[in-house]
């Protein structure tokens, strides 16, 4: 009996920060976009810093609603900046032939995702510098807009001024030398060019990011002890966010390393129960769904895969029509299935599983089904690597 089609939901694969710490925002093409859960904290901190600090000093006559309005609008514009930066990244990645399956929007920009260009190429440098350069450009444009608005619209001028400050600060922060920041990607690229050690470059940049995060937290604690609340809160928050993202990035690096060493043919299930397309739904329910502990069954015509039918497909037809409806009428046709070949490596498997949040993939050779690979198979492999001390 194959675990690939068990009705129980298999353990979640490593999602590099996605899950309880991120919310699904939508899709841009084939890429699922998530927003990291710390965004509300940073948005409030930014609005509070401006309303009670900079705006209060620069505009002492403004009422509270006006100060907070400037702070909240600046926070919203900052989020829009990050969103536009990462949509631009996706467009560039698409032009380079890359197809990220997911993207996480951290307050300082993108973090871990599949589909980055390989090290040692022009695209790697282009994608790395895209975020900081766009932040500098936005900061310059906001500064120009501030000069235009200053004479007659002081509120708008203030929003542009603080937006320029926030964008400039983001550009500097993104260039700090630690993954998943762009400066960490530059460090990784430089180390790879010097040593030609891809794994060593990734681990160095990730550990640098975690070290930098602890340094920021420590410096923030120092300022808090000295009662400099604004500086202390910003530094500790930045360190906390960077630490979470750095740990997530390290996990991704390790998972990519481990999954790059296997193929679908090496971990797939080769024994599974199949059905024929002419089987009527009532027989399918009585002989298979009720008696077998499988959720989904490959539909074969000879040894050719023509589709997959699952218990959830039964909702397509009323029970009284089961005897007059065939499996072929309710199955998902082979042309609509996401499949892999037996030679596909583990990272391709992860990417395909994530495309539609799938639990299993047919492994096909030509139009012939040779196996099924599931989340359970991947998790078992990673667990075996953990037990062997090779995956930490």
| Class per helix and strand makeup | alpha+beta
Low-confidence stretches: 1-20, 112-120
- Please give the number of β-strands: 9
Question: What oligomeric state best describes the polypeptide chains here?
Answer: single chain
Helical content stands at 40-55%
- What does the largest sheet look like? 4 strands, mixed
How much strand?
Answer: 5-15%
Strand order of the largest sheet: 1-2-3-4
Number of helices: 12
Outline the fold blueprint.
Layout: E1 22-28, E2 31-36, H1 39-58, H2 64-95, E3 102-106, E4 109-110, H3 122-149, H4 154-174, H5 182-195, H6 198-225, H7 229-259, H8 264-267, H9 281-289, E5 296-301, E6 304-310, H10 327-330, E7 332-333, H11 346-355, E8 360-365, E9 368-374, H12 375-387
Parallel strand pairs: 2-3
Antiparallel strand pairs: 1-2, 3-4, 5-6, 6-7, 8-9
Helix pairs in contact: 1-2, 2-3, 2-4, 3-4, 3-5, 5-6, 6-7
């Amino acid at each position: 009996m194959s675990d690939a089609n068990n009705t129980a939901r298999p353990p979640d694969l490593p999602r590099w920060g996605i899950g309880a710490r991120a919310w699904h925002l939508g899709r841009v093409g084939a890429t699922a976009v998530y927003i990291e859960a710390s965004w509300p904290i940073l948005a409030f901190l930014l609005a509070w810093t401006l309303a009670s600090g900079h705006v209060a000093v620069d505009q002492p006559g403004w009422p509270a609603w006006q100060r907070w309005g400037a702070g909240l609008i600046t926070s919203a514009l900052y989020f829009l900046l990050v969103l536009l930066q990462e949509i631009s990244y996706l467009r560039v990645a698409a032009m380079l032939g890359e197809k990220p399956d997911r993207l996480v929007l951290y307050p300082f920009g993108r973090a871990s995702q599949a589909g980055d260009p390989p090290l040692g190429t022009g695209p790697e440098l282009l994608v790395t510098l895209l975020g900081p350069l766009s932040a500098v450009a936005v900061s310059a444009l906001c500064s120009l807009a501030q000069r235009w608005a200053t004479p007659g619209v002081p509120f708008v001028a203030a929003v542009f001024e603080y937006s320029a400050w926030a964008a400039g600060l983001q550009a500097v922060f993104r260039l700090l030398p630690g993954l998943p920041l762009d400066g960490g990607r530059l460090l990784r690229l430089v180390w790879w060019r010097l040593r030609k050690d891809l794994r060593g470059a990734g681990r160095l940049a990730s550990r640098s990011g975690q070290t930098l995060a602890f340094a920021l937290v420590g410096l923030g604690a120092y300022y808090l002890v000295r009662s400099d609340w604004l500086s202390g809160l910003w530094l500790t928050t930045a360190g906390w966010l960077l630490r979470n993202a750095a740990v997530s990035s390290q996990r991704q690096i390790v998972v990519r390393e481990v999954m790059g060493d296997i193929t679908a043919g090496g971990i797939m299930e080769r024994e599974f129960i199949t059905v024929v397309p002419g089987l009527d739904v009532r027989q399918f329910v009585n002989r298979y769904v009720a008696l077998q502990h499988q959720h989904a069954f490959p539909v074969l015509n000879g040894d050719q895969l023509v589709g997959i039918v699952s218990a959830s497909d039964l909702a397509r037809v009323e029970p009284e029509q089961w005897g007059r409806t065939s499996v072929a009428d309710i199955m998902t046709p082979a042309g609509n299935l996401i499949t892999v070949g037996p030679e596909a490596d583990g990272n391709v498997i992860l990417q395909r599983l994530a495309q539609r949040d799938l639990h299993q993939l047919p492994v096909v050779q030509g139009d012939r089904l040779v196996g099924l690979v599931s989340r359970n198979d991947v998790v078992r492999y990673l667990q075996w690597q953990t037990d062997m001390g090779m995956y930490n």
